[in-house]
Amino acid sequence: MAAPGQPQKATYDAIVIGAGIQGSFTAYHLAQRHRDTLLLEQFLLPHSRGSSHGQSRIIRSVYPEEYYSRMMPDSFRLWQQLEAEVGVRLYRQTGLVVLGPAGNEELEACRRSLGDSQVLDTTALARHFPGYRLQAGQVAVLDSTGGVLFADRALRAVQEVFRRHGGTVRDGEKVLRIEPGAMVTVTTTGGVYQAPRLIITAGAWTGPLVEPLGLRLPLQPLRIDVCYWREKEPKSTNTGSVSPCFLTVGLSQAPHGIYGLPALEYPGMVKLCHHHGSPTDPEKRDQAPSGADRPDISLLSSFISSYLPGLETQPAVMETCLYTNTPDEDFILDRHPKFSNIIIGAGFSGHGFKLAPVVGKLLCELSLGEEPSHNMAPFAITRFHDVLQSVL
Ligand SMILES: Cc1cc2nc3c(=O)[nH]c(=O)nc-3n(C[C@H](O)[C@H](O)[C@H](O)COP(=O)(O)OP(=O)(O)OC[C@H]3O[C@@H](n4cnc5c(N)ncnc54)[C@H](O)[C@@H]3O)c2cc1C
Ligand SMILES: O=C(O)[C@@H]1CCCCN1
Fold this sequence. Notes:
The protein has 392 residues and is an alpha/beta fold.
């Protein structure tokens, strides 16, 4: 028994740090495999301080990189499984178009990931997406499987199933210290816990959390403006609730890309964002530049003027969210190079939500010492140089 005033020590089969979508799916897979799992979250749930909040995210089969498109059938299947488990709809199929200059390398890779028959000419695009003005020399690739995931609902659902399988969620408990060992010891603001395996999925907080473990990961949190734009005449232009999701590639005025989702969460307002943001510290994300000097908003306004004339050119609603980017924008899914029972899932670089069911499965497999079900080479920590520090 713990001495009076000493926190209670509790032992689990697995501990997961961070109850965003990645940690929650990891915990879900562990609990489904009958591992007694503790999911720790620094904030009271639900919260909007990380990367997994909000009502919508894009899901799509199309990806320029084959190693992601190969994971998507598995991911769609696992999303469907979760929908069946909770009896709640989490995905709406709207279709998705990728727009860019004809012959653009990334666009060609997208086309190849779907098969050749999916390219739309101007007339065909106008049928699917009448609100969009395709510019000279541009084409569109249609992914009919594309659509919207209801993000907040999905996060709630996966945590609910985790609990149903006997999992423990402790929110409002910030992890302060991790001590490696055959049994990893995790000290939080509320207790001390031990397990033979630890999975760290701490989003934008991952860098500082793993530094005391001798790892300096090249992770850059970015503050993203999430903007909703009112239709000038509700439903008249079809830019709204009936249009597909879209994303751009290879546009010189927006090299990082712009993407949009139909008006689902706020009536008559299309979600349209820049796939980039300003470097931030997650603790200081609200100390952002004021309206006047927001380059993302100016970029989006000018894009709307040329491409989506049915929308007003000032955002009606603005929210914020965090990306955590790696230099190559590929995920980190790997064991700690020195402590093999500590697993890290991070750097989702603004495209991790749709793949969370597969990410969770892979992190679960790594933590159990099983052969991962997908190719892990693109996600290795060792692709970065000098990450292992000599502090331990
Ligand atoms: C604006 C925006 C649009 C996006 N659009 C898409 C999209 O269309 N499609 C798509 O697939 N993806 C999209 N993404 C990306 C996707 O949302 C993220 O990749 C995903 O949510 C990352 O989840 P996470 O669990 O890694 O991070 P988070 O959700 O941030 O979870 C990490 C959790 O760890 C907790 N934590 C951190 N430190 C500690 C600690 N010391 N102790 C305890 N808990 C801790 C945090 O509080 C947090 O809850 C988008 C992201 C943003 C911001
Ligand atoms: O992951 C996605 O599908 C989107 C693409 C555009 C940027 C935000 N994330």
